[in-house]
Amino acid sequence: MIRLLKAFFSAMLLFNAIPHIVQGICGESHMTPFGASSAPAVNVIWAWVNLLIGGWLLKLSQPKEWTPHFWLAFCLGGFIISLSLAIFWSNPHARLPWQ
């Protein structure tokens, strides 16, 4: 069960890295936990933090074999964060609670 949770959260972090690295590489500002309009370099750094922690969690889950349950947990994590971010970013007044 713990392995599946690690797979779930690793996918959330890995999928969350995608918009930050894309926006950063394209030279665009994008919201991070550090600000509503973080600089491109901050987004690239935040993306790499997500990638490193997500990859570390995936390694900790020790997927010797990607069973259907493991795939489901990983894909569900990626789907949930993707859908949540799509809903969040479609709101023109989107902001993090502490910003």
Give a written overview of the molecule.
This protein is mostly helical and about 100 residues long. The chain has one domain (about 1-90). It is about 70% helix and about 5% strand. It contains three helices and two strands. The protein has helices spanning about 1-25, 40-60, 70-90, and strands spanning about 30, 35-40. The chain has a two-stranded antiparallel ribbon. Strand 1 and strand 2 (about 35-40) form a beta hairpin. Helix 1 packs antiparallel against helix 2 and helix 1 packs across helix 3 (about 70-90). The radius of gyration is 15 Å and the shape is elongated. About 25% of the residues are buried.
Strand order of the largest sheet: 1-2
Number of domains: 1
Distance between the termini: 35 Å
Report the structural category. mainly alpha
| CA gyration radius, whole angstroms | 15 Å
User: Which sheet architecture does the biggest sheet show?
Assistant: 2 strands, antiparallel
- What proportion of the residues is helical, as a percent range? 55-70%
Give a brief description:
The chain contains three helices and two strands; from the N terminus they run αββαα.
Secondary structure: elements and pairs:
Elements: H1 2-25, E1 30-32, E2 35-38, H2 40-60, H3 68-89
Antiparallel strand pairs: 1-2
Helix pairs in contact: 1-2, 1-3
What attributes does this structure have?
99 residues, two-stranded antiparallel ribbon, 2 strands, mainly alpha
